């Protein structure tokens, strides 16, 4: 798969000396969904703004479709659609006019059929003659996406697209992103919602304090860094973990009605067989056993803590 975005040693320092980006290197594949995760102030928005040509880089380079975002700004920018965090729309403009106007800003000829397709895809067709001021917050976010798609970009940046949106609408947005990927659009998503990245991303990038800590396939990341937990439900309640089991670092949960054992999926041995034998030797009777994988949120928090150390 070809790379459509190439970022090399990208740095940005603002007046006052704040380093927002510290030598970021990143290749983004054509047609993938990349989720950028990071806490507030991590550099996510600065990175997107620099790629989109809104912020000038201090040093380093960014190529979009082979075009340098500084020296070949127009060629690079026409390949990019941007959905910003802030809802900044002309309140008294009609929805269809707002979207069509954005297409014109990129020098594209009128294409009513395309605008209709985009509005239908985003469930905005019934609202095409409504003025923006009449729309709900969720519908306004859909208009932002429609505007970003109006000039048929190859790369779409979504900067916190579901911030402040209810759960139902958030899932609708996930479906929209999946549809756009099917059409071949490359999507770069920044989000605070870990489940969003876990649900729709192909790769996960973690950024903290202006540094890209890693970029990895989602499944590989979770397999490599994830831990599994074994919950052992007990027939009789325990008040404490017996001393003979202390080496397993068991956690007493469910008000003493269960034990939780955490093990590394990468280890040669999980220790489960020996643990079950020792439980039996200690006279502890089990009623059920269940396992669960570490969530992406737990992995993310761990990575950020390591990066800050």
From TrEMBL:
Alphabetical list of Gene3D superfamilies matching this protein: P-loop containing nucleotide triphosphate hydrolases (3.40.50.300)
CDD domains assigned: ABC_DR_subfamily_A
Keywords: ATP-binding, Nucleotide-binding, Transport
Pfam families reported in the protein's UniProt record: ABC_tran (PF00005)
Keyword Coiled coil: no
InterPro entries assigned: AAA+_ATPase, ABC_transporter-like_ATP-bd, ABC_transporter-like_CS, ABC_transporter_ATP-binding, P-loop_NTPase, YD
ABC transporter domain sequence ranges: 5-234
GO MF entries: ATP binding; ATP hydrolysis activity
Protein name (Swiss-Prot/TrEMBL): ABC-2 type transport system ATP-binding protein
Native organism taxonomy: Bacteria, Pseudomonadati, Pseudomonadota, Alphaproteobacteria, Rhodobacterales
């Amino acid at each position: 798969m070809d790379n459509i975005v190439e970022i090399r040693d990208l740095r940005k320092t603002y007046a006052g000396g704040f380093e927002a980006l510290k030598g970021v290197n990143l290749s983004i594949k054509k047609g993938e969904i990349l989720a950028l995760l990071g806490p507030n102030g991590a550099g996510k928005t600065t990175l997107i703004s620099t790629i989109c040509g809104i912020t000038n880089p201090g040093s380093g380079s960014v190529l979009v479709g082979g075009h340098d975002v500084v020296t070949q700004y127009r060629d690079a920018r026409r390949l990019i659609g941007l959905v910003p965090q802030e809802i900044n729309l002309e309140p008294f403009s009609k929805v269809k006019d707002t979207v069509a106007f954005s297409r014109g800003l990129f020098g594209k000829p009128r294409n009513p059929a395309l605008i209709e397709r985009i509005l239908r895809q985003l469930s905005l067709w019934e609202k095409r003659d409504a003025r923006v001021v009449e729309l709900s917050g969720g519908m306004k976010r859909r208009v932002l996406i429609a505007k970003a798609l109006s000039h048929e970009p190859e790369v779409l940046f979504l900067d916190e697209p579901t911030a402040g949106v209810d759960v139902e609408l958030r899932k609708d947005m996930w479906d929209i992103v999946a549809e756009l990927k099917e059409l071949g659009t490359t999507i770069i998503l920044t989000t605070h919602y870990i489940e969003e990245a876990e649900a729709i991303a192909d790769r996960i990038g973690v950024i903290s304090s202006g540094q890209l800590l890693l970029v990895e396939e989602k499944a590989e990341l979770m397999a490599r860094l994830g831990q599994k937990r074994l919950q052992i439900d007990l027939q009789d309640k325990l008040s404490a973990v017996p001393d003979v089991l202390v080496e397993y670092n068991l956690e007493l949960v469910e008000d003493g009605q269960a034990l939780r054992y955490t093990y590394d999926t990468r280890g040669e041995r999980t220790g489960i067989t020996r643990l079950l034998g020792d439980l039996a030797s200690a006279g502890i009777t089990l009623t059920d056993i269940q396992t669960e994988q570490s969530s992406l949120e737990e992995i993310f928090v761990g990575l950020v803590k390591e990066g800050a150390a």
